[in-house]
Amino acid sequence: VLCDGDETLLRLVSTELVVGEALGTVPDGTPTVPLEADLRAQIKTLRLKQQALERTVDLDLRTDGGLARSRLLHRLRLLGIGWGRLTDSQVRNTGTFRETWTLRWRPELAIAIVEASRWGTTLQSAAEAKILDIAQDPDATVGKVASALEEALLAELGGATDRLIRRLESVAALDHDVTHLMSALPGLLRIARYGDVRGTDSAALTRVADSLLLRSCAGLPGAVTGLDADAAAALRAHIDAVHLALSARDDEWATGTWLHTLETLADRDDVNGAIVGRAVRLLCDAERIGGEESGRRLSAALSVGRTAPDKAAWIDGFLGGRGLLLVHDRNLLSLIDNWLRGLDEDQFLPTLPLLRRTFGAFESGERQAIGQAVRHGAPTVSTTGGAGYDTTRGALAMAAAAEILGVAR
Q1: Structurally, how many domains does the chain consist of?
Q2: Among 115, 119, 122, residue whose Cα is nearest residue 132
Q3: Which of 139, 244, 262, 285 could connect to 279 by a Cys-Cys bridge, CB 3.0–4.6 Å?
Q4: How far is the CA of 141 from the CAs of 144, 184, 278, in angstroms?
């Protein structure tokens, strides 16, 4: 009756009128658990306010105040006290010296503080005890321990870092699953980059990361055999993550070792096309193979002897959500266009979903540029003498291709 059935207005009335947003306070001398007393002292020192209204703060980790606030919020998050959550910054930057947090204090967090007090009497000791308990789980994987180590470094838990590194080394030595090793590697390389900002010692992290890289490169050629589409997609995501992390690290030995492994994958014909296509694309981006060689490999992948879904998987791995390659390299676009035009109905129908997913991942501008290139006849279409064409079926195929590429008709 009051809100005409509008639940949004009803929630607004309930939040502001029935519940309210004002927070009360208790005297400083009120008995409380030691963990809450430590939290109050740090909040007062850092000049933070416990407010019910949501607000966003940008922290500069190059300053003592910003680093201390970040340390406090990371420790609270580790203990399950969700006062703040990391969010995307409105300031455009790619460095590691800035963090953006959204803060909102809720009354029920007082209960979370009492629950977290079983781990210790101060935020640092409690966070260290909890992170070590997580890492000591007998079923902990390499990725789980690496994530715990990353959280410990972000929260500057110096008392737990060395033990976590030793735990990571022991778990990694017993784990023979390549996907587990590769999932942990990007995180280790990422947290090693925090050394300059947070003053952490990255030598031990680099040693563990190099060990994981060597074992990943040794096991990857055997792990890519006999994969179905879903397993190949999952492994491709791990390959992308490792490649991106190594590119950011910019270490000649590590990059060379990784690219050599990708070269062995690109030369095999018994591996899922999505993996081979991705290996060729990454090698092309790293300038280990040229544009002419990548075109030759694409032409070979689209040759007779492979099924249409296999060819589509190769293209999906090669393009991988980035259509600028087809915008600038008309030879590759011509190869794909000629292959697509040559598919009969029995081949086109099972290939269409994968191609649609491939081109759908492109930016709108990329799809339009590719569609215009095809429409204006930039790619040349090879024809054979005496071949007959069904214009009606051709029009249907062109309409489907235009819809895939996002071309306005």
Answers
A1: 2
A2: 119
A3: 262
A4: 5, 9, 27
Residue whose structure tokens are 């580790």: 78
Pairing of strands 98-103, 84-86: antiparallel
DSSP per residue, 110-121: HHHHHHHGGG-S
Among positive and negative, which fits the CA dihedral 162, 165, 167, 170?
A: negative
Task: Kindly report, residue by residue over 202-225, the tens digit of the pLDDT.
Answer: 677 788 888 889 999 999 999 888
For residue 20, count other CB atoms closer than 10 A to its CB. 9
| Residue 279: how many other CB atoms lie within 10 Å | 27
* Contacts with 68 (C-beta within 8 Å, 6 or more apart), sequence order: 46
* Residue 61 resides in a domain: yes
Domain-ending residue, one of 119, 152, 185: 119
Would residue 242 count as lying in a domain? no
Neighbour-count burial for 32-59, b at 16+ CB within 10 Å, e otherwise:
bbebeebbeebbeeeebebeeeeeeeeb
pLDDT, tens digit, 9 for 90 and up, residues 274-310: 898 889 888 888 888 887 787 788 778 777 667 777 7
Q: Which domain holds residue 108?
A: 31-119
Q: Are 78 and 127 in contact (CB under 8 A)?
A: yes
Q: Is residue 58 part of a domain?
A: yes
Tell me the three state secondary structure of residue 406. coil
Pairing label, strands 55-60, 84-86: unpaired
Instruction: Specify whether the CB–CB gap between 127 and 79 falls below 8 A.
Output: yes
- Give Cβ neighbours of residue 381 (< 8 Å, ≥ 6 apart): 334, 337, 338, 341
Residue 195: phi, psi to the nearest 5? -60, -40
Q: Which domain-ending residue is among 73, 104, 119? A: 119
> What is the sign of the dihedral through the CA atoms of 114, 119, 120 and 125?
negative
- DSSP code per residue over 120-169: -SSHHHHHHHHHHHHHT-TT--HHHHHHHHHHHHHTT-HHHHHHHHHHHH
Residue 53 in any domain: the answer is: yes
